[in-house]
Design brief:
single chain; alpha/beta; six-stranded parallel β-sheet; globular
């Protein structure tokens, strides 16, 4: 207790009194005095742009080129071997003019996404019952979070916005468009969704009312029957003709707006799973032939994905269905076009990927995970149908697998926690989804531990920043190439963009790659890739400079020297 008090005295600049004999006389002879080396500030922030000064990082007019040592550890039986791969990263600095076409433009996510970008671009403010609110990108990993860049000479950690690390696409600069099976203009769609505050809707309406969705593909067999009443803006003709129209829409949108690139993102209704059938959707050739022949098991989202790939546009799937059947993945690889999915990870599942990672990493064995949701928006209405719910159930259920498999002390080879997911449609709650989870775990000496969590999720306000992140990171990946030591050709990322996994419930990964769901592992992958592009080592939390007397004394000396210079100035 006395030592704690002296640290507090230090903060109040009165610890010097402890050196006086008069002060010490107030304490018994056996009392031990503790003099801390230094109390330093922990964090500093670097908001402006920065430049890396290193032989490992070179800036040219067009690119950032870095030399990087990729250190890994190979385990062969009982032998562990450190391994280093020398490589170069090249990142194009120019972010071209980018358009994003949303499938489901008039839905809650779609209209909120466009409204949010407009509100931020205009710097809008509006009155709420809590006071004045200003437009922001909170909830976006890339626009609203910071990363540790390093530390200063006094040992303070220096953080910078993640958007500051590399040249990134700004949502304010995106040209938005897309399709919807409902033809309501985005101003009225925004009002219908009831997601944003009323005064903000009023300010945005003049900018939203003239944006109307293009006619979309509607295959009733793949979504709930209750969506039929909304379907008044649909394409007709064969599946081949509809795909050709989507391709034309992409070309026209790109030309009309003078775009360098277009990214497509599915934020429309969850579809039922497509049956993967030999001769239908198992190869690139077969999927193209099946669309031409109008095969029943080709979904609308798959038609959009194929159209996007054929136009050389990245396609991202924000819903849980199996849009990327084997034939689509093969086509993307053939055309060297990026695809990413599946299903936005915004609320309950994101918390689950944190909680289970914590439990298993702490040596606690989760044996039962029960998750319940109810929501009242159109997503909930569509998910009330069994086939569509099954798609969502699959994407939500697999999120704990990699974390469980990482600890064979707790779990046998084929052992898994009981895991149940329930979703109910309750119209009254609208976009304000309720998620309730119960985690039951086995602890020390046969004990039991139960954690119960209630999470009220503003569904579209959590999902919309993920759309921005998926687009921004997907665009960055198109500008990054790597070249290993001894190679002459630059190589781009694999067409299956697993780096986007942080934002997705059921990450799509290349064949032969592991699926990673642990949230902080996914985030570290993004941060450390950015560091690699600058020739910086991966961030670690060893902080050896704070672990030894010698280094702490040096930091303390430098801190006192810096403070003295500040006082003299």
């Amino acid at each position: 207790e006395s030592r704690t008090n002296f640290i507090n005295f230090k903060k109040l600049n009165v610890v010097a009194a402890a050196s006086s004999s008069a002060f010490k006389a107030n304490f018994p002879p056996s009392f031990s005095f503790f003099y801390p080396i230094s109390i330093m500030s922990s964090y500093k922030n670097l908001d402006g742009t920065f430049k890396v000064e290193s032989a490992n990082c070179k800036y040219t007019k067009d690119s950032i080129i870095s030399d990087y040592s990729y250190d890994t550890t190979v385990v062969e039986g009982n032998t562990v071997k450190p391994q280093t791969t020398k490589m170069q990263f090249k990142t194009e600095r120019n972010v071209g003019k980018t358009g994003v076409m949303l499938v489901g433009l008039g839905g809650n996510n779609g209209c909120t996404c466009v409204a949010g970008a407009i509100a931020n671009k205009l710097g809008l403010t509006w009155e709420t019952k809590e006071g004045i609110q200003k437009a922001n990108y909170w909830g976006s990993l890339l626009m609203a979070s910071t990363v540790k860049l390093g530390h200063d000479n006094q040992g303070n950690s220096v953080y910078t916005p993640m958007s500051n690390m590399l040249p990134l696409l700004n949502p304010n600069d995106i040209v938005w468009g897309g399709w919807d099976i409902n033809g309501t203009n985005l101003g009225d769609a925004m009002k219908r969704s009831k997601v944003l505050d009323y005064e903000l809707q009023t300010k945005l309406y003049p900018y939203m009312k003239d944006i109307t969705p293009l006619p979309s593909i509607y295959f009733p067999d793949f979504i709930a029957a209750n969506q039929g009443e909304r379907a008044d803006n649909i394409l007709t003709g064969t599946k081949q003709e509809q795909m050709e129209q989507i391709r034309k829409d992409i070309k026209d949108f790109k030309a009309k707006n003078g775009l360098d690139q277009v990214i497509l993102l599915w934020t429309a209704n969850t579809e039922r799973f497509s049956a993967v059938e030999e001769g239908v959707n198992d190869t690139a050739e077969n999927i193209l032939s099946s669309i031409e022949m109008g095969e029943a098991e080709v979904s609308a989202s798959t038609v959009f994905a194929v159209a996007s790939i054929l136009e050389g546009c990245t396609f991202i799937n924000g819903s849980p269905q199996n849009t990327f059947v084997p034939g689509v993945i093969e086509l993307a690889r053939q055309k060297k076009v990026f695809i990413a999915g599946d299903d936005f990870k915004s609320g309950q599942t994101k918390m689950k990927s944190v909680m289970v990672d914590f439990l298993v990493s702490a040596g606690i064995k989760p044996v039962s995970i029960v998750s319940y949701n109810h929501l009242g928006n159109n997503d909930g209405k569509n998910l009330s149908a069994p086939s569509q719910f099954r798609s969502k159930e699959i994407s939500k259920s697999n999120v704990v697998d990699d974390m469980v498999a990482s600890n064979r002390i707790l779990f046998e080879e084929d052992e898994h926690p009981d895991h149940v997911v329930v979703i109910k449609y309750v119209p009254y709650v609208g976009d304000s989804k309720r998620a309730m989870d119960e985690y039951t775990s086995e602890i020390f000496m046969g004990g039991k531990n139960t954690i119960v969590m209630h999470n009220t999720c503003e569904d579209s306000l959590l999902a919309t920043p993920l759309i921005y992140d998926l687009v921004i990171l997907g665009e960055l990946c198109a500008r990054v190439q790597v070249k290993r030591e001894g190679e002459t050709e630059w190589e781009s990322f694999h067409p299956v963009l697993s780096l986007l996994s942080y934002m997705l419930k059921a990450p799509l990964v290349p064949n032969g790659a592991p699926v990673v769901n642990a949230l902080f592992t996914q985030r570290c992958a993004v941060v450390n890739l950015m560091r690699a592009c600058l020739g910086l080592a991966p961030d670690n939390h060893m902080t050896l400079e704070h672990r030894f007397e010698s280094t702490l004394a040096k930091l303390s000396s430098e801190s006192e020297h810096a403070n003295k210079k500040m006082r003299l100035s």
